[in-house]
Task: structure prediction
Amino acid sequence: MRKILLIAVSILFSYTLFSQPELDLDKFYAKHETVKIESRVFKKKRTIEIFYPDEFFTEPKRKFKVAYVFDAQSTPVFNFVTGTTQLMSMSGYEPLIIVGINTEDRYFEFLTKNKYQETLKRYPPPIGGANLLLEHIEKEVEPFIKNKLKKLQNYRIAIGHSLGATFAMYASMKSAKLFDYSILMSPNFVYDSSQYLERMQQFTDSNQLKRSYFICNGYDDKYEDEFAPNIEKAVAILKENKNIFVSYEKLQITSHSHVWLEGVYKGLMILVKKILVTKE
Result:
């Protein structure tokens, strides 16, 4: 009886293994999923976006780097980033899992607490919840995606624009786990009388972490021109630390919102051609 049972199990296993339909590699299997997770940090449900590249389904043994996109509540932004990574992977570049963080209040979630009362005239309360967003990502989003996706490399990328880039910079300095590489497009480092320049100087003076950054901005635009001097100062500060790689480019773009259009692609190319090459 035992022998018959073992034969039956073996037949069932073989049928299950070999009857799985083969995927057509000429078709597209990429998927975008919107997920709500319970957040104890924010005391409510929070929405995240997850993009799975074709290779997640066609290469079951492959492990993926994860890129976090800030301001993913903007559908055009999230779709632009995922579309760019798809087109690049079709040309042989490494595919990425994309996790989008949907922001409900940009001032509150992206900014640290202000030191100066004058700051509140430009950034009305509530502000100063950056540590909550960081805790949410570290303790809630990261465990969720690791459990759900499983096939992940231990490498995290941040993609942010304006205040989203400001937060990404802060997170990379504050957290040992986030982020290995950051694409910072037109970051706002003028906030609160240049608070972030002070933080960067403290960070570079003592940093032992391997960190890499691509920083870019445009020109001839209200925000681009205002942010430019502190961006250039930030680049100089970051270059003082031997553990930090930083690439900076002044883009020929004259619109704050359009910096996305070149910044994502160029930032990903820096990752492929300069950072990952030196790691191997």
